[in-house]
Amino acid sequence: MRKLSVYNFLSLNGYYKDANNGIDWHHHEQGGEEEQFSDNNLKHENALLFGRVTYEMMAGFWPTPMAAEMYPGTAKGMNKAKKYVVSNTLQQADWANTTIINTDLVATVRQLKETSDRDITILGSGSLVSQLTDAGLIDGYQIMIDPVALKAGTPIFHNVQNDVELRLTGSRVFKSGIVLLEYAPA
Question: Which residues contact 98 (CB under 8 A, 6 or more apart)?
Fold first, then answer.
């Protein structure tokens, strides 16, 4: 069975997006350690799972010449990756290698874990994180904590229905002050 993991950025006060649904407060230094970390993660060739809002944001940036210039390795990996977008409203997905999931989320992800030829990573997509955490389908969490506190935003586990107990499996401190914490279900 394939693994399902989460890779997300958080502010110090636990928000994965700000009050305007933005993530521009998260800064990857061009050519810095965080970019190298992202590039290395993409080399695992995991499939990527997005909610519609995150997908549209990513699809609006990663296929562009600006993304290729700013973050060449990450852009290449993002564009090459197999992608799934969960949406009941999206009729077509123009970003290369994207499949729309418009059926039961939990059942579909459970089936993907059983039949996929690769592991799956959720990027952003807090609603998916909450739903799949509640369903017990997430095998690991990679959380990058930025040294910033936001005045308002949405917590990563917003709307979970159950308490979530995790155990630390790894950590790393980047020169920028960003801290990576890796967790698995307890």
Answer: 55, 59, 83, 84, 85
Write down the domain spans for the chain. 1-13+32-149
What whole-number distance in Å separates Cα of residue 80 and Cα of residue 96? 7
105: which 2 tokens? Answer: 């989320």
* pLDDT tens per residue across span 144-153: 999 999 999 9
Checking 100-105 for CB contacts under 8 A at 24+ apart, the result is 105/131, 105/132
Task: Give bridge partners of residue 8 from the DSSP assignment.
Answer: 143
User: Which DSSP category does 111 fall into?
Assistant: H
What is the C-alpha to C-alpha distance for residues 87 and 50, in angstroms, rounded to an integer? 9
Report how far residue 99's alpha carbon sits from residue 148's, in angstroms, rounded to the nearest whole number: 35
Contact 116, 109 (CB under 8 A): no
**Among 50, 49, 48, 47, CA closest to 117:** 47
Say which CATH architecture domain 1-13+32-149 belongs to. 3-Layer(aba) Sandwich (3.40)
126-137 pLDDT, tens digit per residue, is 889 999 999 999
Quote the Cα angle for 100-102-108, to 5°.
Answer: 90
